[in-house]
Amino acid sequence: MSRINTNVQSLLAQRVLGLNNTNLSQSLERLSTGTRINRGKDDPAGLIASENLRAEATALTAAIGNAERADQVVNIAEGGLQEVSNLLNELQGLLTTTANQAGLSEQEKSANQQQVDSILQTIDRIASATSFQGTKLLNGSFDYRAQNVASEVTDFKVNGAKFESATLDVDVLVTQSAQQAGFFLSTGATLDLGGSGDDFRIEVAGRLGSREFSFSSTTAVADVAGAINQFSDVTGVTATVSGTGIVLASEDFGSDEFVSVRVLDDAGITGTGIGIFDLEADDFGTAETTATSTFAAATNEIRDLGQDVAGTINGVRAVADGKDLRINTDFLDVELTLATAASQTLGAVEASAGQPTLQVTGGGADFQLAGQVDIAGKVSLGISNVAVRNLGNSDNGFLGDLASGKSLNLADGDDLSGAQDVVSEAIEQVSSLRGRLGAFQKNTVGATIRSLAISVENTRAADSVIRDTDFAAETAALTRSQILVSSSTNILSLANSQPQSVLQLLG
Fold it and tell me: Whole-angstrom Cα distance, residue 417 to residue 233?
């Protein structure tokens, strides 16, 4: 065929040359940018996957920064708490020194009280001054706020809470009552030893220790109780007159408490209904009708154990200790102490009929430690107020009560054992807070940073597989495209010159 109007071979060569030039340009672009996907048309599905991975990697990198910032915030709080701990230790030393009353003058006691006042003022100053970028850390700014707290809750502490609604209800259900350990000793209004001439001797023991007591005939039951109560601080056991006998009871509630009685010499004690009786499980003030043991048979120790309260908080079985309940979950970490009546009444503990035990309304320190912004990626931490008016509890008192003129000041020395209880509780609270913050740094922040770093690494690697240029393969494609472009150019030149052969027919 000899046509010149349409050069089909040239058109074919042009098309192939255009394709080869496109492939060459694509290879040059990929090699110059280092990425295989530079626009959506290069790989639409791959672009979507790559952009999602890049967004995820960016969020993870930001989360690592958040975790590092959280670590610094807690570091500053820990620094303040460490100094508070040192001051509390110094306060303990002053308390112990002041208790040596016979060896101190009044001036020395006053000087010790001045040091106590200085320590208390310094603790308050640290609580109000410790801050991060102007945000106070130890004055309760990061403590949780609560409302509608049931009157049966004597103390509570919210250590962590995650919620997105206006309030978080905390519902407590008591499933087992808290109990003291104890016995009823029926001795008669006065001891009747039948003229044996011996003393009635018993050994009473509790969690703190034991003491032996001796009572002669005709001793009134009130005097027996009074003698036992003189050593309650040593034994942990109290005695209360009840009718013609006494109730021996542990000072505290829980399975760690016990009361034991051992009769060393019953001295022939006589009387109607005398002996050692258990107390009813549902009514600690009432003795069983049948004696557990006679005094003569109690030469071996008879022991009764206390019982921890048991219950649930928001449907989660709580850890119990005495009258205390606590749960620690990802969404709620709360501990509370029930009043005696509430801890011994099975059922819900309600602020009012149909209402929760308490409501958390806000507060706490929220840290975003995951790339995805939702409640699961948030970690909430409560940092309580360590001012002296808050260190302690409602049962023993608060650290501020040790100040001059207050009920537990050291200068008067009227209740140094009470002051010891408050200082011990304050030391335990600060140590517990430091331990909780340390666990947050080590186990939450530290593990999060390590885990997120691995996730960033793997996410970047996945994105690289999808988006980055394979230089070995692309270099080979470039060489191929260069050869094909050169070949196509030569072929196009031949195709364009082919119609000239028709001129020979025109002679």
Answer: 9
